[in-house]
């Protein structure tokens, strides 16, 4: 059995094709079980999640009905992966069958490789992690509880592994190809200083010193207007290096 949560919730059907899970409550139920895979989840906890903090009276019986429907939606030979075990239900998931733990593992591996100076391996591992990210996690799972408690950590990990990939590729001298990617990320995350510093470095090393300095000025205005703070030491170091005509560097990339 295989599951994907880094985007719309999907499972593999009997023909090996990814398909969505029908029924909004079933999607929330499956997501809640996947997030605690191989661990029994109590009926009360599942009800709290499935009804988004407001389970109705008699919800235990209704939850059993949702579990039955979810079992039927699984490929026949895999329906046994969803079992009943006190104090509730447990979903059995083997290593590699769920995308989120693999994503987290690859993110940590890429960071370790970067710290070890294995630039090419770090870039490749980070890219493998990023290919697992299809869209906002649990995109079609209507649960405020899950979106507020689980999704932010994955989104932060994605930003970190993007930083890691850009750091590694900057070490490998791939400045030209990084500029448009970093420009898009800066536009999407205007307060994220790391991407700004990486963009400044990429622009400077591709001969666009004026544009690199403009990135700093824009970042400074945004940070002052939005947060009331000056750029941090990382961006400041890159900025000063560009002004002095040196090759700009910062802590994790050069």
UniProtKB/TrEMBL annotation:
<dbReference type="InterPro" id="IPR036388">
    <property type="entry name" value="WH-like_DNA-bd_sf"/>
</dbReference>
<dbReference type="InterPro" id="IPR051677">
    <property type="entry name" value="AfsR-DnrI-RedD_regulator"/>
</dbReference>
<dbReference type="InterPro" id="IPR011990">
    <property type="entry name" value="TPR-like_helical_dom_sf"/>
</dbReference>
<protein>
    <submittedName>
        <fullName>AfsR/SARP family transcriptional regulator</fullName>
    </submittedName>
</protein>
<comment type="similarity">
    <text>Belongs to the AfsR/DnrI/RedD regulatory family.</text>
</comment>
<keyword id="KW-0805">Transcription regulation</keyword>
<dbReference type="Pfam" id="PF03704">
    <property type="entry name" value="BTAD"/>
</dbReference>
<keyword id="KW-0238">DNA-binding</keyword>
<dbReference type="InterPro" id="IPR016032">
    <property type="entry name" value="Sig_transdc_resp-reg_C-effctor"/>
</dbReference>
<dbReference type="Pfam" id="PF00486">
    <property type="entry name" value="Trans_reg_C"/>
</dbReference>
<dbReference type="InterPro" id="IPR001867">
    <property type="entry name" value="OmpR/PhoB-type_DNA-bd"/>
</dbReference>
<feature type="domain" description="OmpR/PhoB-type">
    <location>
        <begin position="1"/>
        <end position="93"/>
    </location>
</feature>
<keyword id="KW-0902">Two-component regulatory system</keyword>
<dbReference type="InterPro" id="IPR005158">
    <property type="entry name" value="BTAD"/>
</dbReference>
<feature type="DNA-binding region" description="OmpR/PhoB-type">
    <location>
        <begin position="1"/>
        <end position="93"/>
    </location>
</feature>
<keyword id="KW-0804">Transcription</keyword>
